[in-house]
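Example A, followed by Example B.
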Amino acid sequence: MKDPLYFPRTELAAALLGSLKSGISSAFTLFAPRRMGKTQFLTNDIAPAAEKDGFNVFYFSFMDNRDTADPARFFHEALHRFALNIRTGSGVKTFFGSFTKIEVFGVGIEKETQQQEIPAVSEIIAHIAADDRPTLLLLDEAQELARIPRAEGMIRSLRTGLDIHQNRVKTLFTGSSTNGLRAMFNDIKAPFFHFSHALDFPTLGREFTDFLAGVYRERTGQDLDADKLYSVFVQFDKSPMYIRAVIQDLIINPALSLEAAANARLAQMQENGNFPRQWNALSAMERLLLQSVARGDTSPYGAEFRAKAACTLGVETVKASSVQNAVRKLLRKDLMAKDSGGTFRINSPMLQAWINENVE
């Protein structure tokens, strides 16, 4: 069933697929904080467009499967099943991995309960590459792959297979942790060092909220103030998930005002996030950094920030090394992220909103 509140990113999907199909690139990594619509983009835009373009499509979320007993094994099994599936019939195949089963064309295949010998990942990719159709691997939240214990051999095998067969097997990674992605792609010892072209996943703008206002009008016969709706979207740090929830509330209860719906959702999400406890566990320097970044400061190492920090902390000076140490801690905790342009940002839209509303 089509999601009426989903705003398609058709042009972005076409551009990425065009580059992959033409051979300009064999792999992309899309980065954005969580709750910004990356997964929906893969499943709603990329997968069906790739299928129409003649690709076999494999999707796997390392975030959804990180709490399974052996996520590396689960990925290995899922990839193996996909390889077997695409060779057993004609036509393009799309394959999704989930918690306890793999679904192929709506038919659930239960996850194997007994360990069985399956080929190495590089051999499986060779099998996939031998199909008449090219294949696109959609590997969601790829930073979690680097955090799986004792998975180094499987990761190296994956890299080998993708390197050898990059003309037939394309890859689209997503990630929400700069620290985790760096461990995967940027460090010289990283398993996928310089393998993928990194891109910031673009945020949606006014066109998205105008689209949502149109859906609301179709469903209720009433108009929303488009300017106010966009302001709420900005308040939620342009997270599609949260503004969609507000629209859902308004459609279910048209008597509810936009302001009331937004405030209720904001309060609920901040309560679920347990931000006060998280905030109190941080050092004074970490708090100052998050507060500064939340309010738009993109240069925390600069003299201006260090002077303000020294004044706030009641010390004579704050060294750049002290700021750098706090930045590293925030990156490791996944509270702060750094995009491909070197700009720092808060990794959670809700945490950013909470900081701006509750911290003076």
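Example B, a separate protein, is given below in the same form.
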Amino acid sequence: MLAGVACASARRPLAAQTASSGYGRVSLFFQWGSTSVADGGAGSSFNDAWATLTLRSATSDSGGLEFALDGRGRSTSAGDARENRLQLYDAWVGGRTKGGLFTARAGQMWLNELGALGAVGGVLLELRPETDWKAGRLRFGAFGGLEPRSWEAGWVPGVKKGGAYVALDGDAARRHVLGWVLTRNGGLTERSVVTLSNFVPVGTTFFLYQAAEYDLSGPGGQGSGGLTYLFANARWAVTRWLELQGTYHRGRSVDARTITQDEIDGRPVDPKRLEGLLFGSVGGRVSVEVVRGVRAWVGLARDTYNEDDPPSNRYSAGLHLSNLFRSGVDVSGIWNRNDRAAGSYDSWYASVGRSLGSRVYLSVDASNAVSVLRTTGEGGVVVETRPSSRRYTLNGNVNLGRGFSLLLSAERLADDATNQTRAMGGLSYSF
């Protein structure tokens, strides 16, 4: 997994790599929509309003105070029901010493070094020795605190989280991280996970990214551990006009939180739940720039959605024309063929866009076989694919100047059972 360290250590990284400028962004969005039923049944309407706020302080080689805030607030109304929800990703204060030797943070934070397991509400301590290796500069981190909720602000009752990591940072965003995350629920170990990640650029023509999770034990001490997640993506620009890309994705989805809680509450655990849902995908893509501004690609992947199902093939092809005949018009098209055990279907996406001056961009999109992300009552997420669905969208982006931008969108989604119409408008300010 860390084999890329040797080939990436030929030159010495920049000295400090700790300074960055601060930034902020405030956005406000509104959405209105209605749904009608094809058989003449009762329809419904809804409206949403949500706001986002992102603040990040500047960092300096001379050290000092640091802070970050990244939150989302949303209010949704459907019929007579209204739901308000607040989500926090970062809400911490801290500081670092001169040269970044020592860093401390307290609050809710997302530790990118740990990937999907990086959310924690507590304290982070990090040591970054001043001596650089030729391969990069080391960082040692340790953290501890509470487990944040997934879909709303707050923490999961009775669940504590802690761990440590070591990272090696180099030139051109090169990074290698080895981490360990321990989650305790009551008196049981919900998860004890070793995490690995790599980002290895070689010049400007090749990069490799890898991430993995390995559970040291089963959820709540039941079952067994093993490789839970592995992802790899490699891209190679062979020439200016030819690019190759390959991906590998394999994982096992196990609801460790519910299994551990059932054990605490004295409920029996079905052994099948300890095995979880196995998913995987391996594929490749060849992309060719036919002439300047015209790029075409073809791809093939084999996907596994369940351990008991045979792998299925997914064929794809695409074409993108940028600034067609110097008219300012961009055209994109994508086709996919999905062969599954339950049946096969085609999906496609087409888009035409044009710049109107230097500040306005309009696009018209059309697609079928839309996949819809839906949250469940238990806080989970379900991806629904609707092969017979059709979607048409009109989008507009306007740069208003002085950091302000405007987004407008109208959409029509229809399938055999329902028709949905929605409109959205949003205003953002960056500083």
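On Example B: Helices lie at 4-7, 256-264, 271-275.
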